[in-house]
TrEMBL record:
InterPro entries, per database record: Anti-sigma_ant, STAS_dom, STAS_dom_sf
Organism encoding this protein: Saliterribacillus persicus
NCBIfam families according to UniProt: ant_ant_sig
UniProt family annotation: Belongs to the anti-sigma-factor antagonist family.
Name of the protein in its database record: Anti-sigma factor antagonist
Length: 110
């Protein structure tokens, strides 16, 4: 499976990232390459929509940890939204849900 990444700049330094597919050892480098330039901007706000991500392994968690570290270094924010249950469970099992802001509600109030 592949990973599709769509990045929209809502307003100055506010980004919405839409992911679809699987995040694993094969696709994680592509995800990191797409997100890191955003995370390294000072005072950016990054929201990653994971609604269409149906699988993620520990490699994907590693990417989000790297992105979180970069956002903290640049006084930026990272938020994950619309996680499917199995992906959200991965963050909960590892305890990463306590250090990464996760909003489990679907965008648009659904």
């Amino acid at each position: 499976m592949n990973l599709d990444i769509k990045i929209e700049e809502e307003k100055d330094l506010t980004y919405e990232v839409f992911l679809a597919g699987e995040i694993d050892a094969y696709t994680a480098p592509k995800l990191k390459d797409a997100l890191m330039p955003l995370a390294e901007k000072d005072n950016a706000s990054i929201t990653v929509d994971l609604n269409r991500v149906n699988y993620m392994d520990s490699t994907g968690l590693g990417v989000f940890i790297s992105i979180l570290k970069a956002t903290k270094e640049h006084n930026s924010d990272l938020k994950l939204v619309s996680l499917q249950d199995r992906v959200k469970r991965l963050f909960e099992i590892t305890g990463l849900d306590s250090i990464i802001l996760i909003d489990s509600t679907v965008q648009g109030g659904n």
